[in-house]
Amino acid sequence: MTGIVQTKRLLSYRMALLRLKKMGLKKAYSHTLSEETGVSAVLIRKDFSQCGIRGKRRGGYDVDYLLDELKKLFGREKEQNVVLVGLGNIGSALIKYEGYRQSNMNLVAAFDIDPAKRTRRYSVPVYSLENLREVADAFDVSVAILAVPEFSAQETAHYMVENGIRGILNFAPVLLKLPGHVLVNNINIMVEMERLMYHIGIREK
Amino acid sequence: MTGIVQTKRLLSYRMALLRLKKMGLKKAYSHTLSEETGVSAVLIRKDFSQCGIRGKRRGGYDVDYLLDELKKLFGREKEQNVVLVGLGNIGSALIKYEGYRQSNMNLVAAFDIDPAKRTRRYSVPVYSLENLREVADAFDVSVAILAVPEFSAQETAHYMVENGIRGILNFAPVLLKLPGHVLVNNINIMVEMERLMYHIGIREK
DNA sequence: TAGATTGTTAATCGATTAACAATC
DNA sequence: TAGATTGTTAATCGATTAACAATC
Question: Do the Cβ atoms of B143 and A12 come within 8 Å?
């Protein structure tokens, strides 16, 4: 029912709704959400309709109701624990990030091979990767952020999967070759940057 | 000719090819590239064909030739200068990043409202945003990375556009409302994380 | 009743794959 | 000639939009 692209949209509706709610709005029209998310109003209505979310023919959608329904779809009941592997530039940014709770996630630990990185400087403990299994078992962790250098990404990912990880948000610019039961979501910042510059270049011509 | 999704693929072929070349390979088959990128071999051949890139019917594609052709497509002749706005978690990661050169980009300056952040600690200077116009003019900058907090993203982006920026890589989780001539590429790390967790959750059922 | 909105069905569009032809 | 590969055309699939019906 929910394709990968639709999932992304529904999540962006949720973000926009949280913003609108904070601003005090009680009702949202497909048109309003369209302005906030950049998705066409028809598509928004269709998405909601397909998920069994109903509005009022004249009065739009109730913000709280929408958020509830989206929570039913996405809201993992219990908070989900995650870990972070690699404390380079990106890893250091993500260990300091404070907004996991907002998405009902909880960063419980980070890992780095460099002992110098394993300080108490951060709000979560930093271990050697050898301790992954232990942490994963203790905190029921199945999802990890991978932010190690390109050259060690494959090997590290493999080790992670061997020790209980089933989902990886991968910042390394390589395709990870992993067993079929493992889900990987890739973020490649430099490719996004190049894409932007390419399309700017095209416009100039 | 090149849609937005195809652009992303072509860039990923390029990355894979650079890797293969580093490993000493001279020839690449669509099949090889498929393994490296996760894109189907047919689609790879079709992409190349549409871009006028030819292989040998039996001998695959020549790696150097492929890279040359891709460079012709994406390689901006002169190095492109970019700036970074916002030195929070993500911003600090990106100012330390060393790989811009590899994509023929050059980070020339960063900006932050907090004077405490405007130190000489980094390899590029950090200014107040007031100096953006000056820097943009001097270094012919039209593309910027935006890594400020959500609440100030819209205002900051607007100011940037008023001062010569025409392309933004946006890490703030909001849809920026900007004039039509401005291109925005959004990266929303938490949405990607939630998407991953959602699809993991689905598998469990 | 008129107007504004949601909801749905059919049409369109674009991206991907299947099937096969070409050729080294 | 047989086999492996590229290259192309047609078929399929999925996502989006257009048109319109329903209703508050």
Answer: no
Q: How many domains does chain A have?
A: 2
> Is the CB of B196 less than 8 angstroms away from the CB of A167?
yes
Q: Given B99, B181, B193, which is nearest A190 (Cβ)?
A: B99
Domain that holds residue A158: 80-191
Q: Looking at CA atoms only, how far is residue A170 from chain B in angstroms?
A: 10
Q: A52, A73, A94 — which closes off a domain?
A: A73
Could you identify the residue whose CA is nearest to the C1' atom of nucleotide D18? A42
Give residue-wise pLDDT tens across range B45-96.
999 999 999 999 989 999 999 999 999 888 776 789 999 999 999 999 999 9
CA-based nearest distance A16→chain B, Å: 8
Q: Is A114 helix (H, G, I), strand (E, B) or coil?
A: coil
Tell me, yes or no, whether B110 and B170 share the same domain.
yes
User: Residue B122: is its pLDDT beyond 70?
Assistant: yes
Strand positions, DSSP E, chain B = 27-28, 61-62, 80-85, 105-111, 126-127, 143-146, 167-170, 183-186
Has residue A162 been placed in a domain? yes
The reply to whether B81 has its C-beta less than 7 Å from any atom of strand D is no
pLDDT at B203: 65
Convert the pLDDT of each residue in A96-111 to its tens digit. Answer: 999 999 888 999 999 9
